[in-house]
Amino acid sequence: MAEQIRTAVVGAGYFGRFHANHYSKNPDAKLVAVVDADAGRAKAVADEFGAEAVTDHRQILDRVDAVSIAVPTPLHFEVARELIAAGLHVLIEKPITDTVESAKAITALAEERGTVLQVGHIERYSAAYRVISEKIDRPLYLEGYRIAPWKTRGVEVDVILDLMIHDIDMIIGLVGAPVTKVDAVGTGVMGRKIDIANARINFESGCVANVTASRVSYKTERRLRVFAQSNYLNCDLGERKIFGYGLRGDPMTQGLAAITTETIDIPQEDSLANEIASFLDCIKTGKKPFVDGHAGSEALRVAGLINESIDAQLQKVQSWLKPGDVLAAAAKG
Ligand SMILES: NC(=O)c1ccc[n+]([C@@H]2O[C@H](COP(=O)([O-])OP(=O)(O)OC[C@H]3O[C@@H](n4cnc5c(N)ncnc54)[C@H](O)[C@@H]3O)[C@@H](O)[C@H]2O)c1
Questions:
Q1: In what residue span(s) does the GFO/IDH/MocA-like oxidoreductase domain sit (predicted)?
Q2: Which of 61, 80, 230, 314 could tie 331 with a disulfide, CB 3.0–4.6 Å?
Q3: Does residue 146 contact residue 222 with C-beta atoms inside 8 Å?
């Protein structure tokens, strides 16, 4: 067997634990260390997957080849910068960082150091994304809908960076054209950070996407609808089902018989296992990551445009909101 890639996970919270699990199971990797500022958490996850517990990522710089970063988003940049500067390959959880400048800086640093920098936009490694991109060539319109109940994890960022960024990145990947204009609305509900938002995203190709995200819903739903000139997909990403409609004849003479329908069961695959296998493959072969630092930076740039548009909308509604209203608080930032 070829030599295993020595790996570590920095940030052993909710999502970092999943990364540790996959490194421990992947034959191309050896999970050497689990790093968490909270010693108890580092030990619990390290013990579970047979690795060493460490409390500071600087202690592993010369002992591993590749690292997953799953610390809270505001810390991504500092941790990534130090790991990449030390010549390590990095898989950084989404969103890449919390500013476009810092995202571009680590992307440039990885290019300079010749290391792999992959961003954990997990939906792009899903079977659903693969099926959709095989079925739809040039989308004209996409509708992303992602809602989830309130939770206290992830609230260090707004819903755009917490949830909507998944659809932003996936849609940019499917459209394959630059974003030219964004119109958005949103508000904080639980606090000052935006918890519910809708954005209309215009692409240079003429395609339009309408994206909604909420983290204050009673239920969980993840849907994507896509239409192109002669086909339409209605994808329930949560239930792993795609309903497809297309044309096989002349609707003018054949009526409804010209329309084809199909139900596709999205294959049961673990998207994070795919993402980590792809990261390890890039390290072994020198391939460019499917979602690299440039893609991560672009998703973040578009998230920034959405936030700017929401800020402008909140300034307008301030004039008619009652004092003390949550919306008014959100508008003041
Ligand atoms: N791809 C996805 O679907 C997905 C889902 C959830 C979270 N995430 C991302 O994963 C990241 C972590 O989110 P989470 O929900 O696991 O958060 P979490 O709060 O559960 O875990 C974060 C962990 O990082 C540790 N930590 C904080 N500072 C540290 C430091 N300097 N060094 C080492 N450890 C440190 C904390 O002690 C904690 O254990 C976020 O960027 C989030 O956006 C991605």
A1: 157-227
A2: 314
A3: yes
Structure confidence by residue, pLDDT tens digits, 238-295: 999 999 999 888 989 999 999 999 999 999 999 999 999 999 999 999 999 999 999 9
Distance, CA of 267 to CA of 264 (rounded, Å): 9
- Give the containing element (helix H, strand E) for 202: strand 196-203
Ligand 1 touching residue 35 (CB < 6 A): yes
Q: Tell whether ligand 1 has an atom less than 6 A from the beta carbon of residue 292.
A: no
Tokens describing residue 239: 């239930």
Which amino acid appears at position 7 of this protein?
T
Neighbours of 114 (CB within 10 A): 9
| The 89-93 sheet, strands edge to edge | 52-54, 29-35, 5-10, 66-69, 89-93, 117-120
One-letter-per-residue 3-state SS of 251-298: HHHHHHHHEEEEEEECCCCCHHHHHHHHHHHHHHHCCCCCCEHHHHHH
130 is written with which tokens?
């693969």
pLDDT digits (tens, 9 = 90+) for 98-112: 999 999 999 999 999
* pLDDT for the residue numbered 324: 62
Question: Could you give the CA distance from residue 69 to residue 11 in angstroms, rounded to a whole number?
Answer: 6
Q: Domains, the chain, ranges and CATH?
A: 5-121+272-292 (3.40.50.720), 124-269+301-318 (3.30.360.10)
Q: Is the pLDDT of residue 70 over 70?
A: yes
Return the bridge partners of 278, or none. none
Does residue 275's CB lie within 6 angstroms of at least one atom of ligand 1? no
Structure tokens at 75: 């810390």
Instruction: Name the helix (H) or strand (E) containing 50.
Output: none
Spatial CA neighbour of 107 closest among 284, 305, 300: 300
Displacement of CA 114 from its chain's centroid (Å): 24
Decide: 72 in ligand 1 pocket, CB within 6 A. Answer: yes
DSSP state of 154: T
Q: Could you tell me the distance, in angstroms and rounded to a whole number, from the CA of residue 252 to the centre of ligand 1? A: 55
Identify residue 220 by its one-letter amino acid code. Answer: T
% of residues, the chain, pLDDT over 90: 86
